[in-house]
Amino acid sequence: MSVGSASANRLGSSVPRLYQSKVQPLKRRLFSQNQTTSEPQRPRKRIFTRMPLTTPDATRTLTATHMNEDLTSDSDIVIAEPHLHHYGSTLEHEEMHDLIPADYNNQAPIGRGRIALRLPDHLPEGPRAPSRSPSPEIRRPGQRRLVIVRKWVTPPNCFRLYREYYRKPSIIPDLKADLTSFTSSHLLQLLPPPTLEKALGPFPNYSTFIHARWLWTTEGAGNSDAANRALLKTVYKDKEFVSADVMTKSFKRLKKAVENYQSDPFYKSDGWKESSVAISVPLGKPRPGGQPEFPPAAEFAVPGLRHRSIVDVVHRVIRTDPNVRDFHLHPFRQYVQNQDGKPPSRVIDDIYSSDAMMDEYEKLQRSPREPGCIFERVIFALQFWSDATLLANFGSAKLWPIYMYFGNQPKWARSRSDKHACHDIAYIPSLPAAFQDFVVGQRGFPADSKLETHCRRELFHSVWKLLLDKKFIRAYKHGILILFPDGVIRRVYLRIITYSADYPEKVIIATIRNLGICLCPRCLIFRHQIRKLGTKADTKLRSLQRRVDNEARRSLVTKSRIFIYERRQNVVSTWVEATLRQESLVPTINAFSLCLGRFGFNFFLMLCVDILHEFELGVWKAILQHLIRILHAVGESTTVEMDRRFRQVSAFGRETIRRISYNVSELKQLAARDFEDILQCALPVFEGLFPEELDADIQRLLFVLADWHSLAKLRMHTEGTLDMLSLRTKTLGQELRYFEQHVANKVETFETPREARSRVRRGFRKGSANAAQAQARGGSSLPDTAIGSRKAKGYTLDTYKVHALGDYVSQIRLFGTLDVTSTQLGEARHRQKKRQYERTNKRNFESQIATQTGVVENMRLIDQQVALAKGRPLTCGPEPKARSQEDEDSIIGPLDTRYHIASKGEGVCLSKLLHQTKDDCAFKHFRFQLLDHILARLRGRPYSWDDLLFNKSDYTDVDLHKDHIYSHGASRFNYTSYDIRRCQDTIKPALRISPSGVFKSGYSARCTVMLASDEDDGKSQHQFWYARVLGIFHCEVRSHSSPQANYKRMDILWVRWLGVDPDRRGGTKHKRLDRVGYVPDSCKPGAFGFIDPADVIRGCHLIPTFHEGTRDDLLSGASSAFDVDGEDYQYYSVMRFVDRDMAMRYRGGGVGHVNQYGPQEDIDHGSGTPDLAAAIRPLDADEPLDSDQDNSDSESGMGSDMEEDAVSSDDGRDDSESEVSESDDDLELDAD
């Protein structure tokens, strides 16, 4: 029993008292007991059943692995058979086999128990072919003429999804019927396959080529085990490899030849260039002691810009990249049908199904054609990322790259490094050290920090003026004709849709002041208005005060530049401030406005939100830092306890939740994914650490943050989920204001020791050189006197990152889900640049990195030509993975089945096992439960996990081959996620059962599963049952009554059951997690049981409720089934926010969850939002919509949120909608 647990000490060790206080409600929850009858009755049984499901389409298209593969669904897809319900009581002191009446002989099962629903397993399916006839004509007024618009609509698929195209699409890449018309095989129709000698290009022979391919394209070549395995597999084991042919002495010249390789004889790309960028430096007025006379401005050339043409990259990708076959050239609007007669709901999942690309496409189709052009017109959606990054852990080497992606490519491919979807466009140089020498030489005194900042902005936009050259402008306005791999010539128009960057770079792109009065790059809201996040006034301001690139803005910039460049005013002079300060503008001509403004391009719209920097590294990080400050104020021991709890949180999934092995309180070198993991696990960890008057408020805030985060990061949104997100944003704003006013200010907080040390280091760096040298001589430690004086530190809402959260709903509608625009893609690309930097000589590394990038791209082209010459399918050259990913977490087995267990296991004699475990109470009824489960499935009857269905004499009918069961170390469960992706969870048993005995497996973190519930207790209804998997077995069985029959393999899971605590309701209404606990073995026979693996939905994540402590009386004796050292945690928190799919299973409304039954607890009603769980679940011709059931949970939906908003003023959560003042804010506020 854990020390210091008030709850555990209060409960004590008395089993009867504990049974009455907590376990009895759990037992009542699980078994629905009725103890009012005097005659003992049979326990209420949970019966699992299986029936074949006849699906309308036998063939489905599996898209989980980004490949189109035909799969045939059969009887593995099942539905649940309804059964009558029966209630009974439990006999407390009889042996299990004595529960069977003496006169029971091969009769029907005693009683009828509740079933555990086996949900149908629908495989992912692409769109269906459009109907041959278009929809009725819709006339829309064009700009110059009347255009007749004929919409083309695809029939709904099994998920009720359908698409609406503006015009008949010439190709739908994910339509299985048309996949053969847009595959790499069509490259063979354009040109005959090259000979191997020609395909090898500059390489003298095949052996030299494959060796160079490994050397130049494999990550960590020569330095990692994965790269060495790739060398063995792709080079040495190649049957055509001849070591004597490898010409290692000429590799330097060979690399230069590959860099200049041109694969396309019809289009010569200019490739990488090196240029100088000229900027105009304002010199200001003369000073005493300086030059007496000098010009108002001088031109300074910044060398070292590496760049290439955007149009050339587009040509190269379309003509040579096999991934172009997956590009969506025709955007569409996607809808999901509602079964209750309500209008269809819009579905948004990628940029080519968003409003931004649809609007651009419709504008293009309505515009006049180029004179004499008969070719199809399509849009290529360009997405840009840029961010400066340090290339090494030590030193100042940095790179400022500009990356480009194509929005036409599915986001699943854009996020995969082996698809090579990212294209480097330029590496922006920094102001050289000679810049100050240039300024001093011109005017006699150096430039101050304000002038340097201005020149950096000028440099950035000068680079973009060079990139947006005449060739790009021509492609933007008139399009370019390109031959596509399907043999069709199309006119391609380039459109910049999004530009992703962190806030410091956003203000440079938007040419606004960093943290100015109007600090947002998308609107003109003032800083003091930020705290009204989620209110109607805030929403109105965002809509009415959007930034627009109009003539008025341009004239202000032009006027300010006249003051600076002609009248010699300082860049921050009074005249300039009076002109630009009101809208926080800066005196720099925006390159996007200059080059594209004439076409109506508003560059402010392309600056999209970024959840990585704005929430995970912004709002949430700031709250976490302040919570740690409060814990330091409460007592140093609380931070130690917090760190201990975080380290005990188990990992989950394929890096979904990673093991936390560091001290969270130090917040040392954490990435965004670490802060995301901390948020998802924070609720049970922080519970009970704060003073009682603060704990409930902090728990509520943490729940709201995790709920908002899981909803905002959905990869497929519907109108319903966006309405939910809008309401959650309102609730989040209320909670943040309440936290700032009533929680953060209740405790006087100071800097943490780490924050104090960081501040002192910054002071040393900004101080004199002598102080910095003294610190260096003293090592990394700082004087105690400096660290001891910790400054007071509070929490504030006045940051841009808080303000940005209010734009997420509108941005998702405009650009697609947040993973489309997240800077995470750019941050991931930085890793490749850092690896390339390691291969340079650290001098002039920008040029060497550009060379490596060009060599890798050309090597892929040569590899494709070699594949064509050898008749192999084209691939994108997957990169080697680490062994842990390959061996343990790689997807194994067919994805069209419910689960996969290995064909062979470790044989264990059942009799010997039971003899070895005779003192283990977990195995007390093992044989009877196992035989009863096997017999039920052999006879095709529904089985029960909480009761025996057969007489003891019936068990002799079970022929268990050699009296052996076969133990397995893992089982993989397949499921279709909410966003229609095929996913897999790996479950490993908590016990390792072998011929030598039973041992802890060490995989207790990955052994919990969830099953569909069939509860009908009204308001106490919970959607799922939970169980810890103790063992994974298969056995070979047959019936003795059919001795001629072959043995049949039967897969079985041995589990320990957990029950939901009815005294603590979880969910959105209560703003807390559900809580479960182990069923005690005194509740015979419900503590352990056997289930069919096909009944498992997926794995789930449980975290101990640490503050409740542990106990050792749930099992009647010594057992290997205890969690830790002969004890179990009192309760576990069910982590509904562990991933997006899990959150949608509790929230309801997932498009891919067509198997999700009934109304969900958190489904939102009201505001015109349809009941998504009822609307999207499968249609049944004989099943009416149960409106009563839909209304039963209205308390926990949108109505409850709105009710809480109405009464929020009582506890300080203001929802002020007063008129907003137009006065300016103080510019001295803390930086974001």
Overview of the molecule:
This protein is of the alpha+beta class. Among the domains are: 1-121 and 898-1179, no CATH class; 611-806, no CATH class. Helices cover 33% and strands 16% of the residues. It is built from 38 helices and 41 strands. Strands 24, 26, 27, 32, 33, 34, 35, 36, 37, 38 and 41 form an eleven-stranded antiparallel sheet that branches. It has a seven-stranded mixed sheet with strand order 11-12-19-18-15-21-20, sandwiched between helices. Helix 5 (206-217) packs antiparallel against helix 6 (225-236). The model is unreliable at 1-115, 133-144, 177-191, 768-787, 876-889 and 1157-1232 (pLDDT under 50).
Poorly predicted tracts of residues = 1-115, 133-144, 177-191, 768-787, 876-889, 1157-1232
Principal-axes geometry comes out as globular
- Termini distance? 45 Å
Arithmetic mean of pLDDT = 78
Number of strands: 41
Number of helices: 38
From the helix content, strand content and strand pairing, which structural class follows? alpha+beta
- Estimate percent helicity: 25-40%
Structure at a glance:
The chain is α+β, with helices and mostly antiparallel strands and 1232 residues long. Helix content is 33%, strand content 16%.
Jot down its keywords:
41 strands; 38 helices; disordered C terminus; alpha+beta; Plavaka; 1232 residues; disordered N terminus; seven-stranded mixed beta sheet; globular
Please describe the topology of this protein.
Layout: H1 6-11, H2 15-31, E1 46-48, E2 51-52, E3 59-62, E4 69-72, E5 78-79, E6 114-115, E7 138-141, E8 146-149, E9 152-153, E10 161-165, H3 187-190, H4 196-199, H5 206-217, H6 225-236, H7 251-259, E11 273-282, E12 297-307, H8 310-320, E13 332-336, E14 345-348, H9 355-366, E15 376-386, E16 389-390, E17 398-399, E18 401-406, H10 411-414, E19 423-427, H11 434-443, H12 449-467, H13 470-477, E20 480-483, E21 489-500, H14 503-510, H15 536-544, H16 551-565, H17 574-580, H18 591-596, H19 611-634, H20 636-648, H21 672-686, H22 692-712, E22 717-718, H23 719-743, H24 753-766, H25 769-777, H26 784-788, H27 800-804, H28 808-815, H29 818-821, H30 824-838, H31 845-870, H32 883-887, E23 899-900, E24 906-909, H33 910-916, H34 926-938, E25 943-944, E26 958-960, E27 964-968, E28 971-976, E29 982-987, E30 991-994, E31 997-1000, E32 1008-1012, E33 1024-1039, E34 1048-1060, E35 1075-1078, E36 1088-1091, E37 1096-1099, E38 1102-1104, E39 1110-1111, E40 1128-1129, E41 1132-1134, H35 1140-1147, H36 1172-1176, H37 1187-1191, H38 1198-1206
Parallel strand pairs: 1-6, 15-21
Antiparallel strand pairs: 1-25, 2-5, 3-4, 7-8, 9-10, 10-13, 11-12, 12-19, 13-14, 14-22, 15-18, 16-17, 18-19, 20-21, 23-28, 24-27, 26-33, 27-33, 28-29, 30-31, 32-33, 32-37, 33-34, 34-35, 34-36, 35-41, 38-41, 39-40
Helix pairs in contact: 5-6, 7-31, 16-17, 19-20, 19-21, 21-22, 22-23, 23-38
